[in-house]
Amino acid sequence: MELHETPQKPTLAILTYADENRVFRGNQENFIDLIRSGEEKGVLVYVMTTNDFKLVGKKALGYSYNFQTKKWKKQLLPLPHVIYNRIPYRKFELLPEVQQVLQVCMRHGKIHFFNPTFFNKWTLFEWLNKSKNTQTLIPATQKLTTSEDLEHLLEKHQNLYLKPIRGKAGKGIMKVSQIPEKSAKTRKYQLSIQNKTKSHISRYSNVPQLWTQIREAIGNKDYIIQQGITLANYKQRPYDLRVLVQKNNKGLWSIAGIGARLAGKLSITTHVPRGGSIDDPAKLLDAGFGPTVSKKILRRAKKSALVIAKQIEKASQTMLGEMSMDLGVDTTGQIWFFEANSKPMKFDEPHIRQKSLDNLILYSVHLSKTPAKPSRFAAGAAKRKTANHSAKAR
Ligand SMILES: Nc1ncnc2c1ncn2[C@@H]1O[C@H](COP(=O)(O)OP(=O)(O)O)[C@@H](O)[C@H]1O
Ligand SMILES: [Mg+2]
Fold first, then answer.
1. For ligand 1, what atom is nearest to the CA of residue 172?
2. In ligand 1, which atom is closest to the CA atom of 341?
3. Number of folded domains that form the chain
4. How far is the centre of ligand 2, averaged over its atoms, from the C-alpha of 156 (Å)?
5. Could you tell me the distance, in angstroms and rounded to a whole number, from the CA of residue 191 to the centre of ligand 2?
6. Could you read off the pLDDT of 141-169 as tens digits, one per residue?
7. What is the 21 CA–ligand 1 centroid distance (Å)?
8. How far apart, in whole angstroms, are the C-alpha atoms of residue 267 and residue 378?
9. d(Cα 174, Cα 201) in Å, to the nearest integer?
10. Ligand with the closest atom to the CA of 329
11. Which residues line ligand 1 (CB under 6 A)?
């Protein structure tokens, strides 16, 4: 830094994908909320797109928001200390031109870049299976390729969940249940396929028939098959916990909030768009387990979420700043990990919402005071792939 230069205020860029009709993709309301939170705390926040991504000298091309005119303005802005990846879909992230931008961000010596990629359900399982601290929190899981995989897990578990590795919001989820011998007659297996708000149910007398139907539903997508957990329920509706885990003003993992999602009456998942609803975890847990045990479960859920976040970050060899997590509580009160998402959707609970914005801003302030280093992941990837981009260092 030159002698008389005033130090630049902490600067955070939100990275997303451009859109012809509405400037860029992603949840603009979210971006604006983050820009406002930044303003309140003396942090410059703006949006960058992968399409016109440009770092030139001490400037970057970005979009700032004008609260009076409610318009975005494209301009050269101070180089960010931190870039926060909010590219909203996997299909965008996989485009070669987007990959190239992500590589530049990861390898940049002076900019902190967090949440570089989406997670997938299979690697998450592998990462968490590596550590003794998290092994006990994951249901038995396998990649689903042959009917033998299915048969093998059916011998061990009454219920199984089949989930697309790159799925979200309940799309493509199936459940296989074994009907108890007495009521089974000839149809032994029940398959539920999650549709918009209901699940479509069919029955089969043997695994080959069941497998034919499953294969048709799977198509060419990659799936995992997982031990079904019998979730605790409230008024006969199963629920699970959604935890938002974020780094705080010291760069340490913390719980921003924890909400509960109750399954819709006819659904095999708890997603709100599929008939699920939001509720207070303490209320649901109190009703089922009593206040003392309920508090213990909630404490354990929070502790587990932190242990899981640390292991995911370590195993992924990338820098992460936040993730949301779906945790199940079974009927005995045990905690189970279902999935984590590196592009968490907005939490509707206002207190979690506020905390999440505060954390992102304070974490960015923390990072702005810490020297950046290129990620280990990028260093490895760079050997295999020579990125060719016009980015210059700060
Ligand atoms: N192994 C399982 N046992 C019981 N319920 C499950 C299991 N896996 C998923 N679910 C239910 O389905 C929901 C969606 O699963 P999840 O893995 O989060 O996929 P998605 O990416 O579609 O949200 C979970 O929140 C939970 O309610
Ligand atoms: Mg989920």
1. 22
2. 21
3. 3
4. 24
5. 20
6. 999 999 998 999 999 999 999 999 998 88
7. 34
8. 41
9. 10
10. 1
11. 139, 161, 163, 167-170, 173, 226-229, 231, 240, 269-270, 326, 328, 338-339
CA gap 210, 205 in Å, rounded: 8
Task: Tell whether 176 and 221 lie within a shared domain.
Answer: yes
Could you tell me how many residues make up the chain? Answer: 394
Q: Is residue 173 part of a domain?
A: yes
**Strand partners for 193:** 174, 200
Mean pLDDT rounded to a whole number for the chain = 90
Angle between helices 291-316 and 121-129 (to 10 degrees): 100
Question: Are 15 and 36 in a shared domain?
Answer: yes
DSSP conformational letter for 274? G
**Residue of 237, 238, 236, 256 whose CA lies nearest to 248:** 256
d(CA 372, CA 331): 45
Picking from 227, 262, 277, the residue at the C-terminal end of a domain is 227
Contact assessment for residue 60 and residue 25, using Cβ atoms and an 8 Å cutoff? no
Confidence band (pLDDT; 50, 70, 90) for 6?
Answer: low
Do 283 and 165 lie in one domain? The reply is no
Which of 173, 197, 227 is the last residue before a domain boundary?
227
Expressed in angstroms and rounded, the spacing between residue 240 Cα and the centre of ligand 2 is 10
